[in-house]
Amino acid sequence: MDNPDTTPPAELPGSSIPLQSASASLGQRSVRLVLDVLETLLMALILFVLINVVSARIRVDGPSMEPTLVSGELVMVNKLAYRFGTPEIGDIVVFYFPRDPAQEYIKRLIGLPGDQVSIDAGIVSVNGVPLNEPYLAYQPKYTGTWVVPDGQVFVLGDNRNNSSDSHSWGTVPLEYIVGKALLVYWPPQFWKMLDTAAPALAAPGKEPAIR
After folding, report:
1. Same domain? 186 vs 85
2. Among residues 16, 64, 166, 180, which one is catalytic?
3. pLDDT tens readout for residues 32-53
4. Total structural domains in the chain?
5. Which entry of 23, 107, 166, 206 is annotated as an active-site residue?
6. How far is CA 172 from CA 113, 114, 122, 194, 206, in A?
7. Fewer Cβ atoms within 10 A, N terminus or C terminus of the chain?
8. pTM tops 0.90, yes or no
9. Is residue 2 included in any domain, yes or no?
10. Does residue 173 share a domain with residue 86?
């Protein structure tokens, strides 16, 4: 009977590791690398989907929200703000334009369902109470009175005399609201949180301060 072959496996030059073991180790590392890449891509995809579910990014186009927002600025929007809360006067909201839902507008919310909004002598009043709006650069030069229907909101641009908004084309259905604007994140030097606290109501018998 022939003696069994007891010749040791071939070895890599300069190494005591058998060639078969080295090949297996290289294969395991390759598989692990592929799995790591796939895991990273999956996590990136999940984060991307989550970010887009809870937020949106929009670019300000035009002067209608000056001086609060300037054309070209990029704004982060909270898309879940009104799923877990309710709109408030003073919120800066992004919404689909009622006359062309393919367009998105950004304005300040002034009237809620059932409110009466009036503008006279440069003063905006809600249900007969003047608003103190320190974010305005100029008082509105137009006048009018509007009653906000159920399921709708009344919006105005901060640049009142150069804004296409509810005073010219009507109210916005609540379901058209995309979300609440939170902050300006681009350009970096103009980064800021957006103060959307409800405008203070003027004290009885006093005119609201507007600059």
Report:
1. yes
2. 64
3. 777 767 667 666 555 445 455 5
4. 2
5. 107
6. 10, 13, 23, 21, 31
7. N
8. no
9. no
10. yes
